[in-house]
Specification:
Layout (H helix, E strand, L loop, with lengths): L1 H17 L10 H8 L4 H11 L12 H16 L3 E2 L7 E5 L2 E4 L4 E8 L2 E6 L6 E3 L6 E9 L5 E2 L4 E2 L10 E5 L10 H7 L5 H10 L4 E5 L15 E5 L1 H8 L6 H11 L5 E11 L1 E4 L3 E9 L10 E7 L13 H20 L7 E7 L7 H8 L8 E7 L7 E5 L5 H15 L3 E3 L11 H7 L4 E7 L20 H19 L2
Parallel strand pairs: 7-10, 10-11, 11-12, 16-17, 16-18, 18-21, 19-20
Antiparallel strand pairs: 1-15, 2-15, 3-14, 4-5, 4-13, 6-12, 7-13, 8-9, 15-17, 19-21
Length: 496
Amino acid sequence: MKNYCYYKYYLTLLCLLISSFSSYSQNSEKEILKGMHAFSSHQLEEIVKELSADKYAGRLGGSCEYDSSANWLARKFRKYNIKPLGDNGSYLQWYKIPYTKVFKGCELKLRIPVKGGELIKDYKYISEFIPGATSGNGKVKAEVIYAGYGITAPELNYDDYKKVDVKGKIILIEREVPLAPLDNPELFKKWEPYSYHQYKLKNAIDHGAIGMIYNYGPITNPNNDYYKGFIYTHVGNAVVEDMFKGHKNSHKETIDIIKNDFKPQSFKTGKIVSIKNNTRHFPDGRSSNVIAWIEGNDPNLKNEYILVGAHLDHVGQCWETMPGANDNASGIAVILEIARILKEYNIKLKRSIVFIAFGSEEQGIIGAKHYLENPVVPLKQTIGLINLDGVGSGDKISITAGKNFPQLYEAMDEANQKYIHREMRPNKFLNISRPRLDAARFMKAGIPILSFGAYGNPKTWKVYHQPGDNMEIIDPEIMEDIAQLVYLGLIKLANK
């Protein structure tokens, strides 16, 4: 009921707000277009290049390298005369976040017993395995037990561990759960708590496993808990297929059976593997959101706020630096340039605009969670969040929740049709799975959202959370167009 009331209030307010699209009343159209044409793909590219540099080491939340990137951004806001809105008059809003660093010396090996010894197959870093980014430090060697999705759910009459003993073993498990949100939204809600990486890791430990092979990518993912001595790694198809060799069903056939019948298919693989990870855990880490704002000039409407956000962090080093150029230095570049242009070209706004660079998005959307628990402006007076995540690679624009909140989307759509002319795809966002966007947490808190992304570059997903998310996949022109589009839409949303 709380969310319904929020939405009803926002929809009523935004219907009034959008009813007059000619609300560039405080600046002439010529002045606004002069600002629009000041956006530069070159300048946006330079910001992405800066934030994806080796000196920031992948911007892992809690690390000193992330702090350096946050301080760099704060200095930029100060240079552009965008006022601080963080703790104690600063730009930074601090919170606690444990983190783990991964160093060289990690490995995954298949060990095949032969007369007089064993044959060893070394799996390839990046293409076949990536160390668990919150793994314990050390080495384990044991038989691999396939344990499906790693779920024990008595109320769903499902237990992947029921017919296998994993004590002292290494488990191989799948990510997510045996159905997707769109398959059956109501049923999915019952499965959703079991989709979290943290749950799967703890459940494996509770059942006595000493290590884990996670069929996840392989990508780097620091969104998990740390348990001293529990060693795990992320793998791709090559490793999974090796574990299934000799089994009566292929991996695909096994997954199909689980999904169709909701019956576990766990089994002993008979394969021996060793996992070695070289890590160091920092339980007392802390990180920050970077927050700045432009105050509106209307005596009443300045107390209503539009948030413009993007996550600053990425996944760090595992053990090689993951630059995070598209994910999400690109989003930060766009919000920084929007802030600069609005201020430099003296664009007058009735409502206030708050710029938030979220921290620890990759570690469980923790920066956004902290903000919602400690908002710097009242949530009830927050009109919505315009989020930018992965806007630097591709030639088309996606807008998550565009169909949920047409009053926000229409301002962006009209700007696109009139000036930008990019293919733009809004979607309906159920927001019932575990949060994967900062914007998802805001929507669950009752705040309307739009989350911008770019798509159309086939390389983008191939390098997701890998070292290849670097300047080579960046398309500066799409960033320029998205920056112009959001700039125009914001002005319309800010002025009644």
